[in-house]
Design a protein that fits this description.
The structure holds 2 protein chains of 2 kinds.
Chain A: E1 10-21, E2 24-36, E3 41-45, H1 52-59, E4 67-72, E5 75-76, H2 82-92, E6 93-96, H3 108-116, H4 125-131, H5 147-159, E7 165-169, H6 177-194, E8 197-201, E9 213-218, E10 221-227
Parallel strand pairs in A: 3-8, 3-9, 6-7, 7-8
Antiparallel strand pairs in A: 1-2, 1-4, 4-5, 9-10
Helix pairs in contact in A: 3-4, 3-5, 4-5, 5-6
Chain B: H1 3-14, H2 16-53, E1 59-67, H3 70-76, E2 80-86, E3 88-94, E4 102-109, E5 121-125, E6 135-139, H4 140-146, E7 153-158, E8 161-172, E9 192-198, H5 199-205, E10 211-219, H6 225-236, E11 245-246, H7 251-292, H8 294-302, H9 307-347, H10 359-386, H11 389-393, H12 405-408, H13 417-428, H14 430-468, E12 473-481, H15 484-490, E13 495-510, E14 513-522, E15 531-533, E16 537-539, E17 546-549, H16 550-556, E18 563-568, E19 575-584, E20 592-595, H17 596-603, E21 609-616, H18 621-629, E22 634-639, H19 640-649, H20 651-694, H21 699-736, H22 749-775, H23 779-784
Helix pairs in contact in B: 1-9, 2-7, 2-9, 2-10, 2-20, 7-10, 7-14, 7-20, 9-10, 9-20, 13-21, 14-20, 14-21, 14-22, 20-21, 20-22, 21-22
The chains are: A alpha/beta, B alpha+beta.
The complex binds adenosine-5'-diphosphate and magnesium ion.
The site of magnesium ion (MG) has 3 residues of chain A, from helix 1.
Chain lengths: ~240, ~775
């Protein structure tokens, strides 16, 4: 278990993001202030187009805001150049994307190994697959796996490098209930067992019950934030 | 192995058809480079070693006759290291079993030791003995042509008397790597042979005792051949010197050098085209792969792969294809080079002709193919690197279609819905369409060049033998003689018509440049030996001034109207200034002509002639031959048809091989380009086409959409390729032009037609191959996958 300081894992101030498409300006984020604590599991709720993915991408160093500042611990992400952001992603962040984004020409275990190849202190790729209960499917190609299985491979890929931050963009968006629960359990376990700071985007309100904190986004802003008195385990979720 | 490299291997194996096509194009280019360069190097090495070991002279000079005491004066000249005087005479030969006469060149060699310069290499038999004056060595080419062996006799007309010589050895000489009779342009091993005979024996037969009529010199280190030549010419002037020449202009060495230059040119131009096409193909294919793998690139970047790693990954893909192609190319090039070398050894005779492909060439070949691949990959990979990961995460937005000028023109209204789809799709990425067409156009251009070359060489030989050399026999007299000799020739059996010529050895000077050559004096309108230009057609010789072949004009740097100094190298050796009346773009050689009357006036002589061209009744040919063999005045006889045949057997064969190779490689390019474009449009349109199938379109209909695109791309390529082919031929021709040979720039319509037909056929075949994939399209799988 690594030692965390007392400061926040993330802190974002006045973050805005404007996309310019020809003459149209899309204000995806209109001033977001945010702090995430180390080892915290946060769920981001909100309607489609409210800016959730944009925010998560900025936190993960995939994108840069139009204005505002974002800190990850003592790294100022908004001051980092492209190669520093790449290093930040490589060293600290695990991603789970809505559309899995597995490499179709690599098997499950190879997809995981793709990340452990470039990590400093990774776990064994096979063990990461065991964590998401896919040990017996490790030599299958993505095309031979169902959506839920692919998503679990994506999670194994994200956690195999033992990241300090795990960012998940609608990890259950394309899944049915029981598979969704399996996926969420895997995410919760990483948070619990490795102390990873986790942010999960969803528009499924029921999922919010497994979080430490729930942030609701609307129209590019954080509309509300509430702390759950009691976190329930993923298997108890109902939706 | 890193996981990313494993992905590379899987991507490669998925790409096998396309990878193979590109790899083969690279292999073709590399093979050409390796073939030409290795043959060049082998030839270069072989001839350098040969010249060295057998002490080929640096300067050659012929003269009328000088006393042997001149030798020490030659030796005393600054820069001269060694001097070898000799007697050289032309004779008519009487070969057993051959009716027509052959020409022989007898060279004297010392009896008691080997020659200091221009030593012979004995293949079989032994060296001559001083006690046996009739012993000779014969050059291997002539011996082979006649099946002569040591111990066989051969008849020669020496000073008007037939004499029996005894062959004791079969030899090669660095002076006659390429054995060609004086004044001829093509080798003829049956009718021209070189013999070496003891110095004493030859001198006494030709009244040359105590003298010599030919001399070879070796220079000391650092000596300039120009300076030595000037000194030698001055010294030999009073002995009837015919002008010394440097080794560079010695006939055999000059031919070898010309051939090597050609090889070098082909070896550097053609591969560039192939590699450029390969680079282009790699670019198109990689761009496509990267756009298909957009989300994979994004994922790689999101999980922390750096731009460098991503770029390297895709570059490696290109490098792997290039490396495989390069290795294959070097192997094939070595194989072809060996074949080409053995072909060259049929008319370039060396004691040993060792073929080798140096590691240097292999390394350059590989490096160049890898460089081409990197260049091709560059643009595509840069686009991958620039892809922002967050953006690539989302699915690619639907392609934006606009109603372009094509649609506004109303043209499309006449088309069916699939027809409209074809046009829209092509119009959507006009640059890509144009590039694909350009790639195919390159294939067409190469084919045009291949076919053109066949035509051009044929045309050249036709022109030379059916337009220029209208005579059947050329007779050359021992000495320039009076007009009476012509009548003597006219009375020979079967002679229908004779045309006299006057050939005067000269040195032409213009400013600092000079060239030793022969001015050919011909009637104003020659009938048996015409002067023909590629563009000018039949040229009439003006009453005044010189007519030079353009290449000789180039050597001297003269234009029409410039006044050239003509130093005559025979008789009273007048030096005159003559204007250049005309430059003629002849196909072969570096000739100078004058109207025969004008030449005689320049010589201040009467109706003197050096020889005559004859038109002969074919039925009487044998009788004529028999008579010519024993006509004392006639020193040499050459036959035009024989020269043509021998050309076909030697150079014709080599050219044939080169052309076949060019054509095969051009076909490889055509397949590579067309197949790749078809595969790429398939991979781009797979989803659309599958959707259409689901909507109820038939296989034939969706094939029409896909193959229709290919057809349009090919059709655009045809005119482009023909134009490119024309430019290509012009470029290569002007690069290939040597002093010896200018290939005519005439592309027959049929060459264009063949090239176009071949590519359309290849296109159709590729279309069929792709269509088979289309028929097996797995609708469910295509629609399920997001890519
Ligand atoms: N690359 C982009 N270009 C233009 N507009 C974008 C881009 N990415 C997101 N947007 C817009 O920004 C807004 C927020 O998008 P997003 O963060 O993806 O929302 P969410 O994930 O909450 O559905 C949307 O209106 C979306 O259309
Ligand atoms: Mg989103």
């Amino acid at each position: 278990m690594r030692t965390h300081g007392n400061g926040p894992a993330f802190s974002a101030h006045e973050v805005t993001k404007v996309y310019t498409m020809g003459e149209v300006e899309v204000h995806a984020l209109r001033g977001v202030d945010l702090e995430l604590r180390p080892s915290e599991l946060v769920v981001l709720l909100g309607p489609s187009g409210s800016g959730k993915s944009t925010l998560l991408n900025i936190l993960g160093g995939l994108d840069v805001p139009t204005s505002g500042t974002v800190w990850y611990r003592d790294h100022e992400l908004t001051a980092a150049d492209e190669s520093e952001l790449t290093r930040y992603r490589r060293e600290h962040v695990g991603f789970v994307f809505q559309f899995y984004n597995l490499i179709p020409s690599l098997t499950a275990v190879e997809n995981v190994a793709l990340v452990t190849d470039i990590s400093e202190d990774p776990m064994d790729p096979a063990k990461a697959l065991d964590l998401v209960e896919l040990g017996d499917r490790k030599d299958h190609f993505p095309a031979q796996l169902s959506g839920g299985e692919q998503q679990r491979v994506a999670i194994a890929r994200a956690i195999a490098k033992q990241p300090e931050v795990l960012l998940c963009d609608e990890p259950t968006g394309a899944l049915d209930i029981s598979t969704g629960i399996l996926v969420l359990e895997a995410i919760a376990r990483v948070n619990r067992e490795l102390g990873t700071t986790v942010a999960v985007i969803t528009h499924n309100v029921a999922i919010a019950a497994m979080a430490d904190r729930v942030l609701r986004m609307a129209d590019g802003r954080i509309a509300s934030a509430e702390r759950n008195e009691r976190r329930i385990s993923a298997s108890e979720l109902e939706w | 192995m890193l996981t990313l490299d494993r992905k590379l291997l899987r991507d490669l194996s998925q790409l096998k058809g396309q990878g193979l096509a590109i790899g083969l194009v690279i292999a073709a280019g590399v093979a050409m480079f390796a073939m030409y360069s290795s043959t060049f190097e082998s030839l270069d090495h072989t001839h350098t070693v040969y010249y060295d070991r057998y002490r080929l002279a640096d300067v050659f000079a012929s003269l009328k006759r000088a006393p042997l005491s001149t030798v020490s004066r030659l030796e005393a000249l600054p820069g001269v290291a060694q001097v070898e005087p000799r007697v050289v005479v032309q004779v008519t030969l009487d070969v057993p079993g051959m009716t027509e006469p052959a020409r022989g060149l007898l060279l004297s060699i010392p009896e008691h030791r080997r020659a200091i310069l221009n030593d012979v290499h004995l293949l079989r038999g032994r060296y001559i003995q001083a006690t046996r004056p009739d012993e000779v060595l014969v050059i291997e080419a002539f011996a082979t042509a006649h099946g002569l062996e040591p111990g066989d006799p051969i008849g020669a007309v020496i000073n008007g008397r037939r004499r029996e010589l005894m062959i004791v050895g079969i030899a090669l000489s660095p002076e006659y790597v390429y054995t060609i009779a004086p004044g001829d342009l093509l080798p003829d091993d049956r009718r021209f042979g070189v013999f070496w005979m003891g110095r004493r024996a030859l001198s006494s037969a030709f009244d040359m005792e105590g003298g010599f009529n030919d001399v070879s010199l070796a220079l000391g280190p650092g000596a300039s051949s120009e300076a030595v030549i000037a000194d030698v010419d001055r010294l030999l002037e009073r002995y009837g010197g015919l002008g010394a020449i440097p080794r560079r202009l010695q006939v055999s060495a000059w031919f070898v050098a010309n051939e090597m230059r050609e090889m070098k040119t082909m070896g550097s131009i053609l591969p560039v085209v192939f590699l450029a096409v390969a680079a282009f193909l790699l670019n198109v294919v990689l761009s496509r792969i990267i756009s298909v793998q957009r989300t994979q690139v994004a994922a790689l970047k999101a999980v922390g792969y750096t731009n460098r790693e991503v770029a390297l990954h895709y570059t490696k893909l290109a490098l792997a294809v290039a490396f495989a192609g390069g290795v294959l190319g070097v192997a094939v090039g070595a194989w072809l080079g060996r074949g080409m070398t053995s072909m060259y050894s049929q008319y370039f005779r060396f004691p040993e002709f060792q073929y080798f492909l140096s590691p240097r060439i292999a390394i350059i070949a590989l490096a160049v193919s890898l460089a081409a691949a990197t260049l091709g990959a560059f643009g595509a990979v840069r686009r991958a690197v620039k892809l922002p990961p967050a953006e690539a995460m989302r699915p690619e937005p639907p392609a934006s279609f606009k109603r372009g000028w094509l649609e506004r023109s109303g043209l499309t209204r006449m088309l069916s819905e699939p027809g409209r789809m074809i046009l829209r799709n092509l119009g959507r990425s006009p640059v890509r369409t144009l590039l694909s067409s350009t790639g195919i156009a390159f294939a067409i251009a190469l084919l045009v060049f291949g076919f053109f070359f066949v035509d051009a060489v044929e045309l050249l030989m036709k022109a030379q033998f059916e337009e220029v050399m209208l005579h059947d026999v050329t007779t050359t007299f021992v000495e320039p003689t009076s007009a009476a000799a012509r009548h003597e020739v006219e009375r020979l059996p079967g002679v229908l018509y004779t045309e006299p010529f006057r050939a005067v050895p000269v040195r032409l000077r213009y400013g600092a440049r000079s060239r030793q050559t022969v001015v050919m004096g011909l009637p104003a309108v020659p009938r048996l030996n015409r002067v023909i230009g590629q563009k000018a057609g039949v040229v009439e010789l003006p009453a005044k001034g010189l007519v030079l072949s353009s290449s000789l004009g180039g050597v001297l740097g003269v234009e029409v109207g410039d006044r050239i100094i003509v130093e005559v190298l025979e008789g009273r050796r007048p030096v005159r200034t003559v204007p250049v009346a005309r430059l003629v773009d002849e196909y072969l050689g570096t000739s100078a002509y004058m109207e025969i009357g004008a030449l005689r006036r320049l010589m201040r002589e009467g109706a003197v002639l050096s020889g005559a061209f004859l038109k002969v009744d074919p039925a009487e040919l044998d009788r004529l031959h028999t008579r010519l063999k024993v006509t004392p005045r006639v020193a040499g006889v050459s036959l035009s048809t024989a020269a043509y045949e021998s050309f076909q057997n030697t150079i014709g064969q080599t050219l044939g091989l080169m052309i076949t190779i060019n054509l095969i490689f051009a076909a490889v390019i055509a397949c590579g380009v067309v197949y790749n474009s078809a595969r790429i449009s398939l991979s781009e349109r797979e989803r659309d086409l599958a959707s259409l199938r689901v909507l109820g379109f038939t296989r034939a209909e969706i094939s029409f959409i896909l193959l229709g695109e290919l057809a349009v791309v090919t059709l655009i390529a045809v005119p482009l390729g023909l134009a490119l082919g024309y430019l290509f031929c012009r470029g290569i021709i002007s690069a290939l032009a040597t002093e010896l040979l200018r290939i005519p720039m005439v592309v027959e319509p049929v060459s264009y037609a063949w090239a176009a037909v071949a590519v359309v056929a290849v296109s159709a075949l590729s279309g069929l191959a792709v269509r088979r994939r289309l028929d097996r399209l797995d609708l469910v799988a295509v629609l399920k996958s997001r890519e």
